[in-house]
Amino acid sequence: MSDSLDARMRDEIDDQVAEAFDAYLADRLAEPGPLRTSLASRRSAGVVLGTIGLGTLATVLAPTGGTVVCWIWGVIAVIDLAWLLTARCR
Questions:
Q1: Of all residues in the chain, what percent are helix, strand and coil, respectively (each to 5)?
Q2: Sign of the CA dihedral with 59 first, then 61, 66, and 68 last
Q3: At residue 87, what are phi and psi to the nearest 5 degrees?
């Protein structure tokens, strides 16, 4: 009996957590941010998607050392942040 009660309580708690998380995400998505500003100003997200695609290709072709991959993704992050921040300033 207690096992079924525990399972029902866990399901109820899981549902409550999922609802709270959904509400949190809805609030966060409603807030303005650099990506939303970039899309609203009709600037293409092609640069961001292109750098991610090139980064994936570079990761596959990179030597086995992790340092090279870290540098590749670090540069991609800088490029993408600069792109999004310039969109925010316009």
A1: 85, 0, 15
A2: negative
A3: -70, -35
Q: For the chain, which residues make up each domain, given as ranges?
A: 2-89
Summarize pLDDT for 39-66 with one digit per residue, the tens.
555 556 677 778 888 888 888 887 777 7
CA distance 11 to 58: 44
Report CA-CA distances (Å) from 43 to 47, 49, 51. 10, 13, 15
The DSSP secondary-structure symbol of 64 reads: S
Q: What is the pLDDT of residues 65-79, one digit of tens each?
A: 778 888 888 888 888
- Say if residues 76 and 51 touch (Cβ distance below 8 Å): yes
